[in-house]
Amino acid sequence: MSNTDPEELLSLALRVVDAWNRLDIDALRDLVDENVVVVHQNRGVAAKGRDLMLQTVQQMSEVFPDRHIGETTRWATTGNSVMRETTWQGTATADVPGFGKAGEFCKLNVLSIMSFDNGRLTEWCDYG
User: Does residue 101 contact residue 17 with C-beta atoms inside 8 Å?
Assistant: First the structure.
C-alpha cells in the first residue's frame, strides 16, 4: 500500500523531520525503510540504507550540534512524494566541505523531496 493522500504525506514528512531535529534515532528507525536512499545533491552527502542514513545523521549532529530543519514554507505532492521548501541551519564545530568552516553559522534554503511507501521513508533528496 502506498501513501498518496497529500495531507498524510506531509504528516509523514514532518514526523521524519521532527525525529531528525530531535535526534531521535529510534523514531527514525521506525519511520525509515531499510533500503532508503538519501542524497543532498550539491553538498556531497549520500547514503543508501537505513543504517548508513542513521550513522550519517549521528555524524552530522556531532559536527553541527545545533542543526535544525525549519518550518515548511511551501509544499506540494505528486504520487507518493512530498516536496517541501524549508531551511536547514547549524553551526559547524569543524570544517565541513560543501557546508562551512569551523565556527561558521550555516543556513541553506532547501527543497526536500521525500518519498514514502507503506508509511516509511524510501527516498530523501535535498537540493540547496
Answer: no
pLDDT score for 100: 87
- The residue with cell 531528525 is 20
Which is nearest to 54 in space by CA: 127, 124, 128? Answer: 124
Report yes or no: 45 and 64 within 8 Å, Cβ to Cβ: no
Instruction: Please state, in angstroms and rounded to a whole number, the distance separating the CA atoms of residues 78 and 49.
Output: 23
Burial pattern 50-70, b for ≥16 Cβ within 10 A else e, equals: beebbeebeebeebbeebebb
104-125 residue pLDDT tens: 999 999 999 999 999 999 999 9
Phi and psi of 89, rounded to 5°?
-150, 155
Distance CA(66)–CA(54), nearest Å, equals: 17
How far apart CA 51 and CA 45 sit, in angstroms, is: 15
How many other CB atoms are there within 10 angstroms of residue 23's CB atom? 14
Q: Could you report the average pLDDT of every consecutive run of 10 residues in the chain (128 residues)?
A: 82 97 97 96 87 93 96 96 97 90 95 97 96
